[in-house]
Amino acid sequence: MNVISPSLPVLALLGSTQRSRYGWAAAIMAFTLNISCFAEQWIFSHQGSLYHSITEGKKPGLFVHEKWKGERTSGFLPTQRIGDAMPGLTVAFADGKIHLVSPGCEHTLDPQKGLLLKHRILLPTAPPSPCLWTLADYNGDGRSDVIVFSQSAYDAKARVFYGRADGSYSSPFVLQADGKEFDSSGLRSPHFANMDEDDDLDLICLNAAGRLIYYENRNTNSEPLYAAGEMLGNSTLESALPFDWDGDSLLDLLVVTRNQKIGWMKHGASKTGKLPTFSPIVFFDPS
């Protein structure tokens, strides 16, 4: 999502079933890295196995560790290559489901064959490229909407396409924050999630410098109005995702640092209308 080495990882872990603040029963960690060529790595677990995708380097591809080695924070067994890597992939949460999305497409995972095309997402107008696509129930009507964050130097805007009952999408409108057009230049790891316990979806992401930025939804779930972005903490990250890691019903942050370590930041108890607070990073051992 900004000018950094394309060999740096974007990691994701997808796994155990439990209820989260997204309203679906699945545990997921997902991280996306947007560079000019959308080079990234990501890791996620599925049905007890660990999947690692590498789009750059000497050995690109999609690899699988057969099973976890001990607890979920410990090391993993050696890998096997099962397919090609998927550049530009994001993990999104909408309509009670997990979605693996790349620009214009949704994918499914076959444990033997890797990532397979599930279906194409047809929008009425083509958004500027390069861009990041994600899904969320932006207006709370129970249908998946498409949000596209353009990374174009000439049109760095975020556009929302409402999902319709017939499966099509509406013409887009430009997302705003603090009454101004949202600037998506350099943005990475965009996620819509209830971060302040008021039952609507806020927007949390990383800016071009790797700093965590929080946009509070100060209206309702059906008619979101986003405040100006607020910087959270002083960590510099490559990617981040809100997820209830410790099961206390608060969305923690699962992160990748600039030295390629992955870990989590515990969400402190915060009141509605206050900025979310997070503890220092506790690192995992994905060796």
Shape: globular
Structural class: mainly beta
Q: What ranges have pLDDT less than 50 throughout 5 or more consecutive residues?
A: 1-39
Characterize the largest beta sheet: strand count, sense, and whether it forms a barrel: 4 strands, antiparallel
Give the helix level as a range of percent.
under 10%
- What is the residue-mean pLDDT, rounded to a whole number? 74
N-end to C-end Cα span: 26 Å
Rg for CA atoms:
18 Å
Q: How many strands in all? A: 24
The largest beta-sheet arranges its strands as: 3-4-5-6
Write the element-wise H/E pattern from the N-terminal end onward.
EEEEEEEEEEEEEEEEEEEEEEEE
Number of helices: 0
Strand content: 35-45%
Question: What secondary-structure arrangement, pairings included, does this model have?
Answer:
Elements: E1 13-19, E2 25-29, E3 41-46, E4 49-54, E5 61-65, E6 79-83, E7 90-94, E8 97-102, E9 105-110, E10 114-120, E11 131-136, E12 145-150, E13 158-161, E14 173-174, E15 176-177, E16 180-181, E17 188-193, E18 202-206, E19 212-215, E20 230-231, E21 237-243, E22 252-257, E23 262-265, E24 282-283
Antiparallel strand pairs: 1-2, 3-4, 4-5, 5-6, 7-8, 8-9, 9-10, 11-12, 12-13, 13-14, 15-16, 17-18, 18-19, 19-20, 21-22, 22-23, 23-24
